[in-house]
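User: For a reading group we're discussing how well predicted structures match intuition. Take Endonuclease III. Before you show the prediction, I'll give you the sequence so everyone sees exactly what went in.
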Amino acid sequence: MTRKERYAFVLDYFQQHVPVAETELVYDSPYQLLVAVILSAQCTDKRVNMTTPAIFEKYPTVQDLAQTDFDTLFPFIKSISYPNNKTKHLINMANMVVKDFNGKIPMTVDELVKLPGVGRKTANVITSVVDAQPNMAVDTHVFRVSARIGLTVNATTPLATEKQLISFIPKELIHIAHHWLILHGRYTCVARNPKCEECGLRPACKYYHTVQKKASKEK
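Assistant: Thanks. Here is the predicted 3D structure of Endonuclease III, as structure tokens, for the group to look at:
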């Protein structure tokens, strides 16, 4: 199977079996999504979703968040990984949005990465989820799944993975393909013991054909 054929198989499979795929973070506005994504770094979406309702009730707008201080916000975030840094990031992010962007969450990657606590991955998430822009956020799931299946070849960094994926995936599918790969990595192609026997991508998966089949023959 050529790489082009592999992409075609994978995308066709997801379009047929997972026509709706979206972030599992709960949000009602670009501001809320940005807060949630900043908090989600090296933390589970489940934990973030348990934490954000109280934050959004206390700080319903970015202007409200900009007016708080560390000691007031920290108790809302202390159960999240790296709470000290994330508390500072959220306050500084809110202040910059109010000061430099008239209180509106910017919607380009170049503008978003200027915000404290926002890297390329977060910026890609915001723009692809809110605005369906053809940006591919590469987290640990996307990085692992893409390499295992064979969608990426010798991609040793998230940026290299991103560039390879967007060069093969049709522009109109990039924003949803991000979710397909994340969810597949979260629930099927898990890190330690991938659930290959229940995976519909086996016919196209390099990992299955090289590692899993070999292991089965050796038993």
